[in-house]
Amino acid sequence: MSLDTRPDIETRNPDETRPARDCVDDGADVSVGAMSAGVVDTASPSPGPNPAVTPAEPAEPSAAAEPAAPVVDADQSGTGRALALVDFSPPSVGAGERLIRFAYRLGVPGTMLSSPFGKKARTRLLATVHNTVPGDACAGTALRAGHFLVHGAKTPIAQVDFAGAGRVTPPLERVVHSFAWLTDLEACGPREQGTATAERILGAWLQANPKPPAKPGKGPAWAVGNTGARLMNWLVHAPLILSGEKAFRLRVLAHVAETARWLDRHVHSAEDKLAEVSGWCGIVAAGLLLPEGRPRRLYGEAGLMKALGELMGDDGGVLSRSPIAQMEAIALLVRLRNCYKATRRDPEPSMERVIEMLVPPLLALCHGDGSLGSWQGGWAVSAADVEALVKASEVRTRPLREVRQWGYQRVAAHRTILQFDTAPPPMPGDARYGCASTLAFEFSHAGHRLFVNCGGAASGGGLVPVRLEQGLRATAAHSTLTLDDANSTAVLINGMIGAGVTAVDVDRKTLEQEKSGTSATRLEASHNGYAARYGLTHRRILIVRDDGSELRGEDMLLPASRKGKRGKVGFAIRFHLGPEVEVALTEDGHGAAILLPDQSYWQFRSGAGPVEIEDSLWVDGQGRPVATQQLVIQGMVSRGGGNFGWLLKKMG
Q1: What is the Cα–Cα distance from 165 to 591, expressed in whole angstroms?
Q2: Range 164-177 average pLDDT
Q3: DSSP H helical ranges for 592-648
């Protein structure tokens, strides 16, 4: 598998191109010629053949073509790189509370605003929080045995540099300094059995970080995202770290109060929007659970709602387009809701509304077995983890069919699930592990994945080597078309994304076959990521039968301008296979036989040239790499364009 990470130059929008084609075939013919037979564009009249487009050599057409399929539902849109932002106003409060919030924002101490003439209250916790966010019991057991277990990689606690001077892998860095491991430790057994381990690690961390720095950026321990999560976890899991000697308890409580004051001043310097939300959640939690916290709570609630509005789009998807970030946002708000409940206060209605908005887009990226698809640096998070988080959210809902602004299309056909990326990568300021995955798709049947993306860039540093992180974000690591082994959008270091795809045109239709009474969902999308370099626009059409037994696809390269370029360029269409798939090429070399674990048999056919089998990898639900294979159709195509049809059909 060629994973290219060369920077790409700026692109431009393509000119208007010829409309794509519709097709529904009820026959059992598995040749790609069946897709070309009786094809009629039902959306708009055809402008005639384009002399600049050189089609691939067609297969034999089907003997009997079905009549044109009428469109019963159609939806078109253009998706740009900037999502619409949700606007949440600060919580409605009275004039006095607005004045308190304003004064606290200016730096007036909370004690002076809460009880200006009273005695300063001693630092203590006002309530014990019942945590409902699930943890990893295996990671917690490893902690009690003396190791951090992160994405399958064990690191002895004694070898961790808590000061942050020694370089550790990013996933371990986040776990250590956010104190997310407290949730795992609580999940592995009775609380009393974990207190000694928790206090030992916390004591080592406090010794390495005795005081907050003057400003953020002084190592990972004091990044705003890690600091907000750490403060929240200290407060939520207080019984784990405050059950020891009195001197240690006072030391921890003093550091909790100091950390809250530091966040008050520096939350606006967060590294990204999710980190800012984490910081605000920590501030609100401290306002709820520490004495004289009313001014801090009012200040934090207003800041949190503003940050949430900037974190997500109108359909509830976070701007990073990452399902892992979506889960982090839900977990933060659920923990904060637990803090409200512990103090017998009702959470802000707008915060509850945000949780309700965040869950449906996450479910849209779940396959039939309930596990997540691999998108934007994420891995195939297990069904149990997703289900536990959704249960903790207390939201009962169904997956969104079209998360249009977030940029994912979902088709559920009987026991078959299709996920299709129909948006540009996230904006540079929003990307954590931005991937050049535009027009990639995942396809599963009965909970078994046939076609996947490699995924797992965010887990680099566990069992996935850090050096693979950039390659796992490349276009070639996704089930889509690449030109000249180049990325459709530039993949940069440190999770950043560069120039490339700026807009995607999307069209979704439901097609009905009157003669047979069957129907299908047709998705069409195109992007301009290769327009500036090669003068070509990539357009992909996917058609899924309503019984889930057939997926027809066509990848087209269309001239981006009226004047086509000369010469040829290499192309490759990759179909990364699931981890338990058995595959063998057909005798003619233009197809492959695919066997799933449930013994269902599928046939893949190519009308664009021979099919090859190459090695690949897939990152599983624990962030661990699994050796897999991929089907590849590759060759040379004219700069004037071309089209490549393929078909996946369930046999028997």
Answers
A1: 53
A2: 86
A3: none
Asked if 323 and 293 count as a contact pair (C-beta separation under 8 A), the reply is no
Establish how many alpha carbons lie within 13 A of residue 519's alpha carbon, considering only the half-sphere containing its beta carbon: 13
Handedness of CA 479, 484, 488, 492 (dihedral sign): positive
- Inter-CA distances, 534 with 492, 555, 563, Å: 21, 16, 12
- In 3D space, the residue among 319, 607, 555 whose CA is nearest the CA of residue 441 turns out to be 555
- Select from 485, 513, 448 the least CA-distant residue to 572: 485
The predicted-structure confidence for 73-102, as pLDDT tens digits, reads as follows: 444 555 655 555 565 666 777 787 788 878
- Provide the 10 A C-beta neighbour count for residue 115: 13
Find the mean pLDDT for residues 68-75.
Answer: 42
Q: Cα(524)–Cα(105) distance, rounded to whole angstroms?
A: 49
SS3 542: strand
- At 131, the amino acid letter reads N
Q: Write down the pTM of the prediction.
A: 0.85
37-55: pLDDT as tens digits: 333 333 333 333 333 333 3
Task: Look at residue 282 and give its three-state secondary structure.
Answer: helix
Query: How is 199-218 classified by DSSP, letter by letter?
Result: HHHHHHHHHH--S--SSTTS
3-state secondary structure 131-188: CCCCCCHHHHHHHHCCEEEECCEEEEHHHCCCCCCCCCCHHHHHHHHHCCHHHHHHHC
- Closest Cα partner for 235 from 335, 331, 308, 351? 335
Nearest to 250 by CA among 258, 242, 260, 238: 242
Q: Is a pLDDT exceeding 60 seen at residue 30?
A: no
pLDDT in tens, 368-383: 999 999 999 999 999 9
CB 611 within 8 A of CB 621: no
Residue 598: alpha-carbon gap to chain centroid = 28
**156 - beta bridge partners?**
147
Q: How far apart are the C-alpha atoms of 100 and 116, rounded to whole Å? A: 12
**CA 276/CA 287 separation, integer angstroms:** 17
- 325's tokens: 């970030």
| Distance, CA of 58 to chain centre | 37
- Within a 10 A sphere around the Cβ of 353, how many other Cβ atoms? 14
How far is it, in rounded angstroms, from Cα 358 to Cα 387?
14
| Interatomic CA distance for residues 58 and 562, integer angstroms | 25
pLDDT digits (tens, 9 = 90+) for 9-24: 333 333 333 333 444 3
